[in-house]
Amino acid sequence: MLKKKIIFFAVFVLLVIGLLTYQSTRGERGVADFPIYPLKIIEQGLSSLIDFFRSYVPFLGKGERATGLRLAECEGERTKYKEAAYENERLRAILQLKSERADFISAAGVFARDPTNWFQIMWIDKGLDSGIAKNMVAVTPLGPVGKVHRVLGERAAIIQITDVNSSVAVRLQTSRVEGILEGRGDNRCSLKYIAKDIEVAPGENVITSGLDGIYPEGLLVGSVSEVDREGGELFQLIIVAPSQDLNKVEDVVILRK
Q: Is residue 155 part of a domain?
């Protein structure tokens, strides 16, 4: 649409210049000069058109670039507002969890994760200086994340419940049968030591039992995703999906033992 307007304006300018030139020279030229006159009109019109584009087109390019910059700035502002909204939502959930837990120690942000695939460990930005100690539990409003494995002055390492070296005392919420939840290293856990005669259905909730002396009792850990009664010799093979997607954790709350 803008290019059409430019062309229309240029043609209009050309016609005006031609008319003005014709009127100014009408009384001074004879019949013999008439065949040459249209060529002069075209020459003057082209010259005016070239001058117009020399002065206007660079400005047009700058305008398009300026528009692109404004759009990029708007997109950047929109991204910042979305991030601020997500952060506010997370902080509100953390504050609510803090108000509900008498064993609250500190809230912390996740700033790093183990770069290898051998261990599932995350680092938080709080440590000894904030009252955090080894084996304290890290949780989110959705469930437990893991326990403090290593602690320094201003940071600490959390070994996640999905790590192969992790174990949590749990129970099936419906049958009340107790077992041990062990990490598999693939963002899921195995529920161990559940006898084959126990009825376990996919979707049943798994909660902490508190019998390990580390994880508080009654935290929702996840739900049963797979059950294989024939796979093991003495016990069922049960896979549990954590209620909290540990790949999406950005903030945690640390609870005392």
A: yes
